[in-house]
Amino acid sequence: MLKDKIADSGLTQESIADAMGISRCTFYRKMKKEGNTFTVQEMNRMIKFISLTKEEAAKIFLILK
Q1: What is the Cα–Cα distance from 10 to 38, expressed in whole angstroms?
Q2: Taking every annotated instance into account, which residue ranges of this chain make up the domain Antitoxin Xre-like helix-turn-helix (predicted)?
């Protein structure tokens, strides 16, 4: 779901990694684990950068799948 939201926003995974201040390799590794290893600070940065709603963020990051 996170990959879809990134694509829908017109952004790339690379641009999000850069905006978050983490390496692209680290970002990809965290994405492979379905976002379960992002820190709270990283999640908050993504929520703002991608403009996720509270409901979308909860579904993506709080394992409400």
Answers
A1: 21
A2: 5-50
Q: Mean pLDDT, 10 residues at a time, over the chain (65 residues)?
A: 90 92 91 78 93 91 65
Instruction: Report helix, strand or coil for 19.
Output: helix
Tell me how crowded residue 20 is: count the other CB atoms within 10 A of its CB: 20
Output the pTM of the full model: 0.78
Q: How far apart are CA 2 and CA 14, in angstroms?
A: 14
How many CA atoms lie within 13 Å of 22's alpha carbon, on the beta-carbon side? Answer: 19
